Known about the structure:
By secondary structure, the chain is an alpha/beta fold. The chain contains 6 helices and 11 strands.
Amino acid sequence: MTPRPAPEWCISPGLTDYASALAEMEARAAAVAAGDAGELMWMLEHPPVYTAGTSAAPDELIDPRFPVVSAGRGGRYTYHGPGQRIGYLVLDLNARGRDVRHFVHSLEGWVIAALGEIGIAAFRAPGRIGIWTIDRGQEAKIGAIGVRVKRWITMHGFSVNLSPDLAHFGGIVPCGIADFGVTSAASLGQPTDFATFDAALAFHRDAFLETVSCGAQNSA
């Protein structure tokens, strides 16, 4: 059997317009579904923007101080902005296993492992979407997960707060969870640049892909 080509690992410097990134990601997903392109793992950063998932409630948009864009992914309102690492994954679950829950669980594990490499103990919280940690004795969200799967091709992925302006989250109820705050690597006293975090993600990338592909056995 011919080995599967590794997904393209792409890091975009500077700020990438959200709408442009969304269009590019959707085009790549269509090309993957058609067999005209390979998979993609895309790391980028956006200008300030609020994105609305398919479950976003109008009353959770408190102060639309930044552009509000319909994302088409699952979930509710999320903020993206400078200082936040975004990871968009265009992966083919037809070959890796048609199990969306397994994919999301694997994605969470990858981000948690990468955060561990930079000294942040992160975890899943039962009943709450996202990546969590302890900030000054309280549980706080450091990363968001939001995916869309179309024709078993994944889109969107994760965001991790390295050093964003946390006040920008005040314009929404992040992911519809009002009882817990948000935090960042910088706020936790673990300032981390993009290159360092990207290296942590890359270190655990192959293990993540192997874990995702185990879903093929589950769905066989």
